[in-house]
Write a structure and sequence with these properties.
This protein has 5 helices and 4 strands. The chain has 178 residues and is of the alpha/beta class. It has a 4-stranded parallel beta sheet.
Length: 178
Amino acid sequence: MSRAPYKVLFLCTGNSARSILAESILNHIGKGRFRAYSAGSHPAGRVNPLALEWLNQQMFPVDELRSKSWDEFAAPGAPRMDFVFTVCDKAAGELCPVWPGQPMTAHWGIPDPAAVRGTEREARHAMADAFRQLSRRISLFVSLPFDKLDAIVIKREIRAIGSLDDANASVPTTQPLS
């Protein structure tokens, strides 16, 4: 018997870049085993155009992506999450809503590519780097043998993934953001 997809919520403050990238990446590489969502504590109200451009160039799904409040996922009738990951330090420090179903949580903080104030090239590089870091962490996450691990081990593993030193990690991406 197959299990329903694991539901995963990625959180950041603005829900315009990092959590959006993570949602798309997991929905793409999760191959139906996972259903990803994203939200923000103070949503920007729009998805960062460079995030959409990068995801489009990598041929990752963008159709359902929108900037939204994390309150949507704490409301009655919201999907019950199995995992909730914060991808920014600010959101990790905020008082989060109570998530139905008591999902496992971890912090996977990475620098905000939407906050880069420099040249267009620097902004594009920051977006590509955020994508690379999230791809690496999500790839490790989806490779965990969930059916063979108990909850304590899964919690330890998802927290360890969040503490990876991505400065020296390399995950190939298909095309550079021109």
